[in-house]
Amino acid sequence: MLSVFAIVIVIFYLGLLGSFIIGFNKTPIFFYKDISAKNTFSVIIPFRNEDKDLPFLLESIKALKYSRLHFEILFVDDASEDNSVKLIQEHLKNTTINFTILNNKRTSNSPKKDAITTAIAVAKYSWIITTDADCVLPNSWLNCFNSFIAEKAPKVIVAPVTLHNTTTFFNYFQLLDVLSLQGATMGGFGIKQPFMANGANLAYQKTVFFKVNGFSSNNNIASGDDIFLLENALKQFPNGVFYLKSTKAIVSTKTESSFIAYFQQRLRWASKSTHYSNNFAKSTGIIVLLTNGILVGFSVMGLAGHFNFKLLLCFFLIKGLIDYLLIAKTARFFNQSFSFTTYIISVFLYPFTSVFVAISATLSSYKWKGRTFKK
């Protein structure tokens, strides 16, 4: 009976990943035209103790090619205890960048949502774009958004995010994880079931934020400024949410430096999943968790001599193959590479880390930027 159950779940998983692969292909690549600046952007960047990463972001901001009269940068200081504020001021004081440093006004259990809300309250422009302090922006970033808006007239734009400086196995392990998430994100849009977004590269009209009442329905949850806004926007504007599949819009961020940091990040991501209102997102999460859970459970049973290792290996290989098809497509879009050996090791390692994170997320709190948050 267990084998039959496992086969059924694996079939569901194959169907799910197959639909993402089809959806990935159906999501068209956008080739932006460098038209004149028509749209105005308020770029919101919350930060807390980011003086090690901010220089890279600030240099990329200075390199932006978009008209300086058509965007502003709103930095929101979330009680930093380092030199982040001074660093921002020193890097941008002699430039033509229009920037403001705000102090976060805490009103909820989510510092980041509070920071975005604080910035939107004073934002001058019609489009809001959020990114993170440890990101690097492409110089045509805003130009690409401007061209996309002119052509598609969207309400919300989800855009691509990847990892940079991948040199070690641990870096590549994280990259494979992010590529799979990005591939599923694009695939979801392609099959008209958008269910994921990343706040490191997310844009929406300011009126949309007020129309969905900001984060009022989920500000008790520390994370999820991206997913929950996407879900609420889809309810109000089902035909107004688009994916910007363009290499000119790719924002990159760093990998986590240690397993503990990686584990805490994944705990934070997993903690919001039980609050999803999107049924497709819930179903996807259940299928993925059950598939990984089966591989872990049967591995333990196999070591105890209670499960056929050949069948177990077959399950791993089937999952690894369908995952590879999606990840390879996504990697080509991002122009990133990884060794096949790294991938094979990750195929066997990932289910264990995934299940460990899922179980831990239901039992423990997590740490984020020096603070502890409950699930």
UniProtKB/TrEMBL annotation:
This protein's UniProt keywords: Glycosyltransferase, Membrane, Transferase, Transmembrane, Transmembrane helix
Matching Pfam families: Glycos_transf_2
Record-annotated Glycosyltransferase 2-like domain positions: 42-175
Keyword Protein transport: no
Transmembrane segments: 6-24, 280-301, 307-328, 340-363
Molecular function terms from GO: glycosyltransferase activity
SUPFAM superfamilies per the UniProt record, alphabetical: Nucleotide-diphospho-sugar transferases
Family per record: Belongs to the glycosyltransferase 2 family.
Name of this chain's protein: Glycosyltransferase
Native species: Mangrovimonas spongiae
